[in-house]
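Late entry, evening session. Most of the bench is empty. Finally got around to the prediction I had been postponing all week. Sequence below, unchanged from the version circulated by S.P.
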Amino acid sequence: MNHIANAEEQIVTERLRRKLNEVNSSAQSQLSGVQDHINFTLQQAYFKCAYNCFDRRRSHEEISNCVEHCSVPVMQAQNLVEGEMAKFQEKLQRALMVCQDRYESAKLQPGQSNSMNDLESCVSQTIDDSVKTLPSLVERLKTSLGMYNST
């Protein structure tokens, strides 16, 4: 009986791992436009701006201040995305901890043979719910970054 339970647990664990990979893939896919905007559009503007800072008539300090000023939009955009993704991950992690707590409590109750299935169901629903929030998160980011014409 223990071998069967262990095998079932391994199967469920693998399904959960795949489900977690799903949320990572979805987040990367949906955020790719935002990342491209930061990595190309904003970075390109930064380098053009910084290039124009280098003028022999300027002091070293003026050049440094100018270049630093040019980097502000890129840094703000990266901080915004990192902050939003940190909140997303924190919320997902809290929800997954609730699933784990329910599973641990169910294991302690006699006659709770479906606790592993309940865990899988809880995690699956939590991840599905989180993935559904990604489009609005991406839209918020696009609006904040001025990406009105992007899809």
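Two things to note before I forget:
Residues 31-144 form one domain.
The chain has one domain: 31-144.
Will write this up properly tomorrow.
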